[in-house]
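ARCHIVE CARD
SHELF: 3
SLOT: left
DATA:
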Amino acid sequence: MTTENRPPYAGTRAPKLTEVPAFTDHIATGWGDEPVPATPVDGAAAAAASHRLRLSERFPGETIVVSAGTAPVRNDDNSYLFRADSDFVWLTGCQVEGAILVMTARPGGHDAHLYLPPPFRPGETGFFANALHGELWVGASPGLREWAEALQITVEPVTALDELSGLKGALASESVSEALVSEHGLERSDSLGRQLSRLRMVKDAWEIGQMRFAVDATVEGFAEVVREIPRAVRDGLGERWLQGTFDRYARTVGNGVGYTTIVGSGPHAPVLHWVRCDGPVLADAALLLDMGVEANSLYTADVTRTIPASGTFSVEQRRVHDLVEKAHRAGMAQIRPGTEYLDFHFAAMEVVAQGLHDWGLLPVSVDEALSPQGQHHRRYLACGIGHHLGLDVHDCSHAEFEDYQGAELEPGVVMTVEPGLYFHANDLTVPPELRGIGVRLEDDLLVTETGAEVLSDALPIDAAGIETWTRSHLHGSEQPR
């Protein structure tokens, strides 16, 4: 083929094909029309409508703009898999990339309009030229009418925002693009993010149902991982095989993982965020698994267990685990209505500090270690003891200190309790037999009217129970499933 006769573009992308009339005419015809329904998670639309009413009450007379956001670039022209902004999902039940919610103030409340980028259908140039919304690239997609019917909200094309007047001074969430803020004279609002976090702290019945699903699925995901331990050890597949096992499972039963899966064997277990997972699974080591399934509604679980890869803890591993369990139980006992948010943190820390002192690992008294000027025990537990849980693994992060840390717990709050001890392999302040041992226990708790429900209680927390549970799954790991 001569240079003169080559087609206008020969790569994987085809923008210059728009300049070839024969091609554009041919690709515009001969396609069947099969509308695709919008399928938000059951109950999401009604829950979102209720959430908008709650937000409306906090901002009378203010117009509000919240965006789903767009996927960040991974490399060159490849983006990460899109995951919608949590505030946007809470308010709409929609997970369309580039979507924007506008809540326009009116007497007594707000009118909600959802602006979506419509998919490019056959006959439109974008059908083959737009890799983000062209159906030739991404497959058939629901249209604006389908989303309006599914969500019971007014839906318009996102281009209609260009002609929309009266947005100057509207409150914009963090997810709204700088271009939109500048174009319409919106005002970034810390108060909007703070109030959304405060509202999201207390889950309604639908949200709690979603979190129950996420936690139950996560528990089964733990079992799937444990079944693969013998193979990971025997075949040298290592931590990453176990990480991939859980990730594949989470992507199958839900949207994926709620955060990057942590699998730490032996000396990697003390590393708080060991997400590289590029080490071996040691047959005689403790294995720390911090994992959570994110449901299709985007609500996530966050559960951690430290298990013996062999099925039996060593004396030293069990010694550390027993102290962490004691701290864990002390922390969970403080999760109930009327207690202050940080009570569980202090209760668990007191147990940890006393235990480390009894082992001779603190250079000061327990009281001095626990004092604001001390904190010596935090060398082995530098992170906090828990956090809110919901659409984000560290939920409601835009709330201010006084919004929750000095406030009392109330029914509907979902949170984690996760004490641990982390003795790094190169930490010369601990005896050699403890170096390289990391133990964390983490459960997800729902505050009820009378106390708390441990949503993740299908997994044992005591060392003997964990050994029995682990061996029951290791034993069946070679059986066909």
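SLOT: right
DATA:
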Amino acid sequence: MSIQHSDVLYTAVATAENGRDGRVATDDGKLDVVVNPPKEMGGSGAGTNPEQLFAAGYSACFQGALGVVARQEKADISGSTVTAKVGIGKNDDGFGIIVEISAQIPNVDTETAKGLVEKAHQVCPYSKATRGNISVTLV
């Protein structure tokens, strides 16, 4: 199910110059970063890269979704962290990405944590956007 333009609560706007070897900035000036390919891909590694930015956004969004689910389940997730590992590599169409989401939830048992993570994966907008398009592993 998709959202309609009238349902949009917030829109982020970012502009890239020179692709993977340039800079990316938001229209509000809150983000302005140099981007370079990592050394592993032949770049200088001097700046950040799109995969790091995607990992940052995905981990923050997933943590938010985990909070929503935890409130519904009345679970204590204080002190929890979510890490997104984003890999890029060659595939049949050129390049593709894979993601591993790892959550540390210290105040619940392993089974409860697993259930919360699986439910968060169902409600996280990043997970919804990538479902069926990239491999996402939950840890």
